[in-house]
Write a sequence for this structure.
């Protein structure tokens, strides 16, 4: 489940960026297609299936085009539903993560990233840290 947690954090970070929701969703889909259904809690596997169900994940060279085509064809309601389901995946996976408070070094790293992203107003003590991604809640 650790790999799924890292991938969903990457997807959430993509959604948090500024810009057109379609572009952000396309970026968020990239890590979602790498998540295996068996690595997810059973209560959200249907959300993952809804998100990537029509994408042929066996064809690595065509995944980007398939994702782009799928997101481009979505209605406003479907875009909203996709964001909602990605959030549900994140919440379900977060429930399985340890709740150790971040160290001073991790807080300093979080502060640096917040400054870089122009979000100094967020409190670095609430960041969830992992080896690859930092997600600020």
């Amino acid at each position: 489940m650790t790999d799924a947690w890292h991938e969903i954090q990457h997807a959430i970070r993509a959604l948090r960026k500024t810009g057109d929701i379609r572009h952000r969703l396309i970026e968020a889909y990239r890590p979602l297609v790498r998540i295996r259904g068996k690595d997810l809690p059973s209560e959200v596997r249907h959300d993952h299936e809804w998100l990537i169900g029509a994408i042929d994940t066996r064809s690595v060279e065509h995944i980007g085009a398939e994702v782009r085509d799928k997101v481009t064809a979505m209605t406003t309601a479907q875009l909203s539903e996709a964001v909602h389901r990605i959030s549900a995946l994140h919440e379900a996976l977060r429930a399985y993560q340890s709740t150790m408070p971040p160290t001073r070094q991790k807080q300093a790293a979080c502060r640096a990233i917040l400054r870089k992203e122009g979000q100094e107003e967020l409190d670095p003590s609430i960041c969830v840290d992992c080896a690859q991604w930092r997600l600020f809640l």
Q: What stands out?
A: Residues 17 and 113 are 13 Å apart (CA to CA). The mean pLDDT is 79.
